[in-house]
């Protein structure tokens, strides 16, 4: 189990050992299951696009089809998250912290909702933790499903289409970029973590003042 969890947190291992099926499952889990917040969504999409350009035999599909499949996994994941939030409702707020659940993740997402409204479902796609809990919280507060689906689809297309296309282009133009994946992953982690940390510390400051 420990080895499997290690595999799920390493984008290269996900594709190497699980191929397209595990790739799609991880994207689905990170956007649809509250236990998926630790999964490497951004890095996984980036390396999938890159490998589709440099080593297409690893995934066995064309780049347009790869994008379509990843977008579908992300859209369905959000739908499952919305359904779970709608069913669980306010019970999530009374749930005790565990290894896979932290109440502060719900609070961070709630603060982001209060600041950005429905756009959280779009902007949140690019932010770890937020993208996992945004659809769940949308279900908890029961926003209109049609409106939710609009933001859901736009967010999935922007997130996967943006990161995947950039990676595919870089892979075609600079195949040697594979040698610098470690630096790229670190950069992505830092860039996506900054807004989350700002939101978290602002919420802590506001709570202390209150």
Description:
- The protein is mainly alpha-helical.
- It has one domain.
- Helix content is 76%, strand content 0%.
- Helix 6 crosses helix 10.
- The longest helix is centred in the C-terminal third of the chain and has 29 residues.
Structural class: mainly alpha
H-E order? HHHHHHHHHH
Largest sheet: none
List the domain count as a whole number: 1
Please provide the count of β strands: 0
Unreliable spans: none
Radius of gyration: 17 Å
- What fraction of the residues are assigned to beta strands by DSSP? under 5%
Note the overall shape: globular
Q: What is the CA-CA span between the terminal residues?
A: 43 Å
Mean pLDDT across all amino acids: 79
Note the main attributes of this structure:
210 residues; mainly alpha; globular
What's the arrangement of secondary structure elements?
Layout (H helix, E strand, L loop, with lengths): L1 H7 L2 H22 L8 H14 L8 H26 L2 H4 L8 H14 L3 H4 L6 H11 L4 H29 L7 H29 L1
Helix pairs in contact: 2-3, 2-4, 2-8, 3-4, 3-9, 4-8, 4-9, 6-8, 6-10
In a few lines, what is going on in this structure?
76% of the residues lie in helices and 0% in strands. By secondary structure, it is mainly α.
